[in-house]
């Protein structure tokens, strides 16, 4: 490892050693080679391009998809003493002129730019007059048409290959299955030998998935574990997003809405409040979050089914970027599955694309319905593996299985004999022999399947039907108010009668139950918690004075280290991980004073 890279790591970022494959990647790029980097969120991808950009002659050009993400990273770099800036369409003319003067004078270490800005108005030509240390394309899965966050402007970035053929190119992402990886490598002309795959595991995240029962009550129960913490709640529709945020505010949470239909100024104001706050809940559609750099998101909840396993991995990956414990919850029901299927079938995509999307949805449903370790299923999708993790709901409370062959036959027969047009609740009532006016009106109290399912309760029957939908044995007609019908695979099942093992739904439980405690405070020894809180208050005070997010001052992880080490001087504070030279100079005295004052009161 070049000495210069280690020196930068310590002086700028305050760390003594690289993690995982960082050292190999950084050495590779400093040596002038291209690199494709697949590394889980929170694994330290940004250092893989920032340090080579600082170490090599010239300015690093970083292509990033969102203005908010660029602003966030630039603010963090400047706090660390790095000369960084962002070029975007929102810059006033005077600031734009001043920025171009700095670029042309070679006064910057890193320049962030969105692909749309880069590709318009002669920007590439002007950059061609400067020396570039490297070109890094962040969130590189956006250029793949098979990726879940496809951005057409990213497809045009192959112009960089032709315009800067001798400049090292980097493509970085946390989310890319095999087809997506192959497309990125091909499009940017990066060879397989220059690919670094660091794995997908996020061991600090606890995964949990549950059937929708009473979604608001389930979400409220989940959030009780996260009082005073920031998190994201994902919804599928704009309306649901607004309604859920309003309901959470009524429950006492500082909840904000974010979706593409909002006024731009309001949307940006809400994002800034989330970035700058320490206990804000963002209720959002998938329009929010790509590349979010906030490290102290302690939870992510989906109250609707996401679009794919890639989307689920990317969205849950916004939790716990600082490596401290975080928690996720996904709720789903038959209507979610039907809606996602409808999105696929009604799209204008070619048949090959629709087949791929159906396979992706099946993989997500496989995760939702698995009786095994969720982390194993999730990682296997990306070609990775792990031992049973002990940090997901199915590891904490393994679900029971039962031979569901007869139950499935009964359910399918009941759907058939009622005319394949009634919804889940009606089918369950017929199976249980419920004597209702509606059932009598249709004469379904006289059919052979009336009351043949009394060996199971309504909750288990709902779970059975949900699993039959997930297995594509049953279709749901959303346009027909959720009516169930037998899918072709269901007819094959009735004919062939193969054995079928199904899951018993776990008992309703409070999220206060088993599993890793997810609050950052939970990893702080009780003896250090009051000091940790005092340090957080000082950090927030400084951040508000500068109008920056608190975490660009110091991450929670660094404050935990400070509370444990209790340095008595700036020289001692320099040994704490995460304290670089610039931050020590700016904030050392203030934080040492907090520690001294606390120690004086405690003695």
TrEMBL record:
Q: Where is the Rhodanese domain?
A: 215-270
E.C. code: 5.6.2.4
- The Helicase C-terminal domain sits at 218-362
Q: Recorded GO terms, molecular function?
A: DNA helicase activity; hydrolase activity
Keyword annotations of the record: ATP-binding, DNA damage, DNA recombination, DNA repair, DNA-binding, Helicase, Hydrolase, Isomerase, Metal-binding, Nucleotide-binding, Zinc
Q: Which PANTHER family match?
A: ATP-DEPENDENT DNA HELICASE Q1, DNA HELICASE RECQ FAMILY MEMBER
Report what the protein is called.
DNA helicase RecQ
Q: Which organism is it from?
A: Rhodopseudomonas julia
> Taxonomy-wise, where does this protein's organism fall, top ranks first?
Bacteria, Pseudomonadati, Pseudomonadota, Alphaproteobacteria, Hyphomicrobiales
């Amino acid at each position: 490892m070049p000495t210069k890279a280690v020196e930068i790591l310590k002086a700028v970022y305050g760390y003594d050693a690289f993690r995982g494959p960082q050292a190999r990647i950084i050495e590779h790029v400093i040596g002038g080679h291209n690199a494709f980097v697949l590394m889980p969120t929170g694994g330290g991808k940004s250092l893989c391009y920032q340090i080579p950009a600082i170490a090599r002659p010239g300015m690093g050009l970083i292509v990033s998809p969102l203005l908010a993400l660029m602003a966030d990273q630039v603010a963090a770099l400047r706090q660390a003493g790095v000369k960084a800036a962002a070029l975007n369409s929102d810059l006033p003319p005077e600031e734009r002129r001043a920025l171009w003067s700095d670029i042309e004078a070679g006064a910057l270490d890193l320049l962030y730019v969105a692909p749309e800005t880069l590709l318009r108005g002669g920007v590439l030509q002007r950059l061609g007059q400067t020396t570039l240390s490297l070109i890094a394309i962040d969130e590189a899965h956006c250029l793949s048409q098979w990726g879940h966050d496809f951005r057409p402007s990213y497809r045009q970035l192959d112009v960089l290959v032709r315009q800067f053929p001798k400049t090292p190119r980097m493509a970085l992402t946390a989310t890319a299955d095999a087809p997506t990886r192959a497309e990125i490598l091909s499009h940017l002309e990066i060879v397989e030998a220059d690919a670094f795959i660091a794995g997908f595991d996020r061991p600090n995240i606890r995964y949990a998935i549950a059937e929708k029962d009473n979604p608001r009550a389930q979400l409220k129960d989940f959030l009780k574990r996260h009082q005073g913490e920031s998190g994201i709640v994902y919804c599928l529709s704009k309306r649901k997003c607004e309604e859920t945020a309003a309901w959470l505010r009524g429950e006492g949470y500082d909840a904000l809405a974010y979706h593409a239909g909002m006024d731009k100024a309001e949307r940006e104001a809400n994002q800034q409040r989330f970035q700058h706050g320490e206990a804000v809940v963002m209720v959002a559609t998938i329009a929010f979050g790509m590349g979010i750099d906030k490290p102290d998101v302690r939870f992510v909840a989906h109250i609707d089914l996401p679009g794919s396993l890639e989307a689920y991995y990317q969205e849950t990956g916004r939790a716990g970027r600082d490596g401290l414990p975080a928690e996720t919850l996904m709720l789903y029901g038959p209507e979610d599955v039907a809606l996602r299927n409808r999105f696929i079938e009604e799209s204008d995509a070619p048949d090959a694309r629709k087949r791929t999307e159906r396979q992706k949805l099946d993989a997500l449903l496989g995760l939702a319905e698995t009786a095994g370790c969720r982390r194993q299923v999730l990682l296997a999708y990306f070609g990775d593996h792990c031992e049973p993790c002990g940090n997901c709901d199915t590891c904490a409370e393994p679900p029971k299985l039962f031979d569901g062959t007869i139950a499935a036959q009964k359910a399918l027969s009941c759907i058939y004999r009622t005319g394949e047009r009634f919804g889940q609740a009606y089918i369950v009532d017929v199976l249980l022999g419920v004597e209702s006016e509606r059932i009598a009106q249709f004469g379904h109290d006289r059919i052979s399947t009336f009351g043949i399912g009394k060996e199971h309760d309504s909750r288990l029957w709902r779970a059975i039907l949900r699993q039959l939908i997930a297995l594509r044995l049953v279709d749901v007609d959303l346009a027909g108010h959720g009516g169930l019908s037998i899918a072709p695979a269901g007819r094959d099942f009735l004919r062939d009668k193969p054995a079928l093992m199904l899951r018993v739904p776990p008992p309703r439980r409070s999220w206060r139950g088993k599993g890793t405690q997810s609050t950052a405070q939970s990893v702080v020894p009780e003896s250090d918690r009051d000091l940790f809180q005092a340090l957080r208050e000082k950090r927030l005070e400084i951040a508000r004075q500068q109008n920056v997010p608190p975490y660009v001052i110091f991450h929670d992880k660094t404050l935990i280290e400070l509370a444990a080490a209790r340095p008595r001087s700036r020289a001692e504070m320099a040994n704490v991980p995460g304290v670089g030279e610039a931050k020590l100079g700016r904030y050392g005295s203030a934080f040492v004073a907090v520690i001294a004052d606390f120690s004086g009161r405690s003695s």
